[in-house]
Amino acid sequence: MRLALANGLSPQSSVPARVARAGAKRSPGRPGSCPALHRLWWTCLAVWLSSSAAMAQDWAREMFDHTSHDFGVVARGAKVEHVFTMQNIYVEDVRIADIRSTCGCTVPEVDRRLLKTWEKAQIKVVIDTRRFLGRKDATLSVRLDQPFPAEVQLHTHCYIRGDVVVEPGEVRFGTVVQATAAQQRVSVRYAGRTDWRIERAESRNPYLEAQAVEAADSARALGRINYDLLVTLKAGAPAGYLREELLLVTNDYSSQSARIPVMVQAVVVPAVTVRPSPLLMPVLAIGQSATRQLVVQAARPFRVTGVECDDPRFRFKLPEDARTVQLIPVTFTAAGSAGQVARTVKIATDLPDSPAVEVAVHVQVIESPGSPTPPGPLGATP
C-alpha cells in the first residue's frame, strides 16, 4: 500500500514495505550463556516487538483527523452524537471490516466501508442518554482488513445528568423554505434545587436564536422547575443542511455542569429551484441552433421577471402567467469560433426576499463540416 502526500503531489512507500521496515530492524545479539544477559535479551526483544507493532498501526491512524471527543455534561434524553472523519490518503483501497464499542451506551454507525483514494467515511457515534446515566467512557475499535490488517481506537467521554431532561431530545425543524423563518419548542425539566435556573441560551450560528422561558407549571417550592426553550431559525439562513449545538447556560455550581448542549437540525431548501442544473446543450456546428427547456419551480405561484446572460448567443422566452412551475425555453445559436462555451444564466422572479437563481449552461461548438480550421492558440474559449 502506497502512502500519498496530503497535497497529492507524489506517493510514498507502501504500507507493507513500511511495516516490513518497522519489523526489519536488527535484533539484539544472541543472549549467550549468562542468565542475566539472557533475561535482558528477552526483555529488549519484547519491547522491540511491541514498538514495531505500534508503528505498523500508524498508517491507519493517519487517516483520522482526530481520535477522541469529550461531550462534556449532557442532559438525560438529549440527542448526543459526534462524527469521526476518516479519509483514505493511500493509493490502494481501504476497507472497514467492523466497529465495536466497549460500552452499550455508545452506538457506532458508518456511512461507507470501502474507500478509494481520497474518499471519506463518517463514523457517527450516538450516545444513548435515555437508558444510561452518569459518567460514560467508551472505546470504539475500528478494524480494517484491507489492504493490511490494522485497528484504530476512538475514544468518547460524557457525563449524563439525571436531574435535567430535554424533551424531545433535539430541536428538529425538518425542511424549511429559504427566506422564511421557522420556530420550534422543546421542554427542559429539572428536579433538585429550588433556585435552579437557565440564565441564557447561546448559539454560534448567526441564523439561530434561542430563548428559555420558565413554564407556568413549574413548582419551585418542590424543586421541580420546567422551561420552554423557543428556538427560531431566521429567514436569512442559507440553503443546505444545518446541524448546530445550542448551549444552555445554567446557575449550576460546577462550571462544567453549567453548560448543557442541545442539538439543532434543519434542511433549508431554496425558495426557487431550477432543473436541470447545469443545463447541457447539444454539440453544435457553427451556424446551428438548439433549444432546451429550464424548469423553474416554487412552493407558490410566481412570475419570471427576467432572465439574463452576458452572451448574446443565448435567447430566452419568458412565460407570462403566474404558476408554481414555469418553463423557460433557452435557445443558443453557435457563432464565432469553435470551442467550449460555459456561461451563467440568472433568473429573477417576483417572489419577495428571493434572490435571483443561477444555473450554469455548457455548449460545445465545433467547426462546420468542410470548413478550414482557423489558426489560433490551443484551448481558446470563445
Textual characterization of the structure:
Helix content is 9%, strand content 53%. It is mainly beta and 382 residues long. The protein has four domains: 15-61; 68-161, Immunoglobulins (Immunoglobulin-like, Sandwich); 168-269, Immunoglobulins (Immunoglobulin-like), CATH 2.60.40; 272-366, Immunoglobulin-like (Sandwich). The strands form six sheets. Strands 3, 5, 7, 9, 10, 12, 14 and 15 form an eight-stranded mixed sheet that branches. Strands 19, 20, 22, 25 and 26 form a five-stranded mixed sheet that branches. A hairpin with a 3-residue loop joins strand 9 and strand 10. Helix 1 runs antiparallel to helix 2 (35-61). The longest helix has 27 residues, at 35-61. It starts with a strand and ends in a 16-residue tail after the last strand.
